[in-house]
Amino acid sequence: MKHIAIGILGAAALGFVASAASAGTLDTVKQKGFLQCGVSTGLAGFSAPDDKGDWKGIDADFCRAVAAAVFGDASKVKFTPLSAKERFTALQSGEVDILSRNTTWTSNRDSALGLDFVGITYYDGQGFMINAKKLPGVNSALQLSGAAVCVQSGTTTELNLADYFKKNKMEYNPVVFEKLEEVNAAYDAGRCDAYTTDQSGLYGIRLTLSSPADHVVLPEIISKEPLGPAVRQGDDQWAHIARWTYFALLNAEEAGITQANVEEMKTSTDPNIQRLLGTEPDGKYGADLGLSNDWVVNIVKAVGNYGEMFERNVGSGSPLKIARGINALWTKGGLQYGPPVR
Amino acid sequence: MASQEILRGEPSRGSFINDPRIRSLFFQTLVVILLFSSIWWIVHNVIENLQRLHIASGFGFLKSRAGFDISDTPIAYTSDSTYFRALVVGLLNTIIIAAAGIVLATVVGFLIGIGRLSQNWLIRKICTVYVEIFRNIPPLLVIFFWYSGVLAVLPPPRESIHLPLGSFLNQRGFYLPRAVWGDGSWLIGVALLLAIAMAWFVAQRARQRQRATGQQFPVFWTSVALIVGLPVLAFLLSGMPLTFDFPKQSTFNLTGGFWIKPEFLSLLLALSFYTAAFIAEIVRAGIRGVSKGQTEAAAALGLRSGPILRLVVIPQAMRIVIPPLTSQYLNLTKNSSLAIAIGYPDLTATAGTVLNQTGQAVEGVFIMMIAYLVLSLVTSFVMNIVNARMALVER
């Protein structure tokens, strides 16, 4: 009986240690010396490991940008691949410091889930992909009545799919998996007629199929999918750092600061650029955020500006070749708009 | 030793620190206090942390609209149904796979187990190989083997394999004609029930007669004749009110008929073949556990090998078999949660989706745990009743 008592005492003591008071995320991150970043289990263009095991993509680069802002060193990131189902719990429990995992910003996630979305790094919408070789004559999602549709569970995609077929009075047979690789494998094996997820994702997934040329993405976009990084609710300082890292990327593009010219730009006399790069005399915009004054220099040196990040990962510099579209800067007719650093 | 002294009611001697009753009481109280305070602490900790992290809590979400669809729905369910109904659908799917798996595993397990004791060398060796293969591979791999290795490589819907009796097999599943019962088919059901009742009655009378006179009556064949004959007669009398809905090719897939999806099929085959390996060993142990003297004594009384097996060996073997069999049934039920790997919407998968859509992980996991606990307790309750009936009745 004594052993049991000791066991219970031990378990209780362990529990107390586990619930030790949580300091601010910035301090915790600085203390451990790296940023723990939650990414997808492998979505080309957003977060996927390359042949050397390095994580590539917009979402992975965003974490590098935050690490560069905090440490001045973009390599101080550790990536945690998370399934759609695991992602929120991982962030809530503190397993990751930031969730940068092609996650749709919704009111429910912002409120009831204890998350805080910091911005929209990619404006997306849900679409459908089919195997045109096996299904000749299908060129609209409205012809999919009766189809088996592959979808990942626990996503907004799953809900939009149900709504879309209900609204259009069509029947379908959902084939639902928890992990992206399982959905990909099932679709590639022909278990379903159509694959639905965010359109950017469809282009990425198409590349990984056994014969990409056979598959087409249907024109319909059935939802708004604003994808962006999220942090835990209730830590304003950390949310500000993540949010302004995103804005800094946009402002750098707008000001024409690139990975290549950032050192020259430091000597610029344009007050706007001076404020951004921390070269304005007595300016302390970085310090106010809890960072160094040359935080934007560090970010741009590490990953470039938003435009460079986009083109490298999903745009013309990548196999995906997705056009900027609504993800262009506001000055070029897009929706990406960064509030000023001042 | 302490309890023995208490039982004997001997007065304690020496200092009260050494009094076994007081010591025992002290430690028991201590454990109870520690147990309850740690439970209280865990609950308190969870509630406090959920509030600190601004995460919604409580079970109110169960009444909200689910918004997602489920592929296998034994009861009416649409995306407009509630989360609660989604969970019920998941639970029913778990019960269906567990029940079907238990039946199939038992049948296969008994056949293999008896086969391992066969006089025939080949049958014996085949059964041994079966047991050694399936017992030593993790069930998840067996599931993947069926799903990705066998069913996924079948031809696509437009090149379905045509099987006899209007059934089809393709990578989307197995399609059977579905029986559609017309007017007057209730008569067949009534006839079936009547036949079962009559067969039971005949069996009772036959037993009484055998006890009284020693004369035997062919109960088995009479029952078969009744149970098959009466419904067939009723079917003919009511004007054959049966048509079949055959699966037909449509745009994307076969429609109509009765459709068994590959997720269900591979999970069922994997779980039952895996568990059957263990059941086979249990059955073999049970039969081996009946002393050889029993068989020899029965033979000496002039019984032939059939009745020896049926009347002497099996009743005694069942006593050894049933308790470990219960454990295997429970294992199968719990292993059915591996369904999530291939997307069969069982309780774990559905509750997981609910958990993710609502973000209420603590409540979601709690519901899952309670559901599996209740399911397992019911299974063991039923098996305990069976066990009690099989137990040796000492006269």
How would you characterize the overall build of this protein?
The complex is a heterodimer of chains A (342) and B (395). Chain A is an alpha/beta fold. Chain A contains 14 helices and 14 strands. Chain A has a five-stranded mixed sheet with strand order 10-9-11-8-12, sandwiched between helices. Chain A has a three-stranded parallel sheet with strand order 4-1-5. In chain A, helix 6 links the parallel strand 9 (147-152) and strand 10 (172-177). In chain A, helix 3 crosses helix 9 (236-254). Chain B is of the alpha+beta class. In chain B, 65% of the residues lie in helices and 7% in strands. Chain B is built from twelve helices and eight strands. In chain B, strands 1-2-3-8 form a four-stranded antiparallel sheet. In chain B, strand 6 and strand 7 (254-255) form a beta hairpin. In chain B, helix 4 (121-135) packs across helix 8. The longest helix of chain B is centred in the N-terminal third of the chain and has 33 residues, at 20-52. Chain B is globular. The two termini of chain B are 35 Å apart. The model of chain B has no long low-confidence stretch (mean pLDDT 87). Chains A and B meet through helix 1, helix 4, helix 5, helix 6 and strand 10 of A and helix 2 and helix 11 of B.
SSE order of chain B in H/E notation? Answer: HHHHHEEEEHHEEEEHHHHH
How would the global form of chain B be characterised?
Answer: globular
Stretches with pLDDT under 50, minimum 5 residues of chain B:
none
How far apart the termini of chain B lie comes to: 35 Å
Mean pLDDT of chain B: 87
What can be said about the biggest beta sheet of chain A?
5 strands, mixed
Shape of chain A, please? globular
Order of strands, widest sheet of chain B = 1-2-3-8
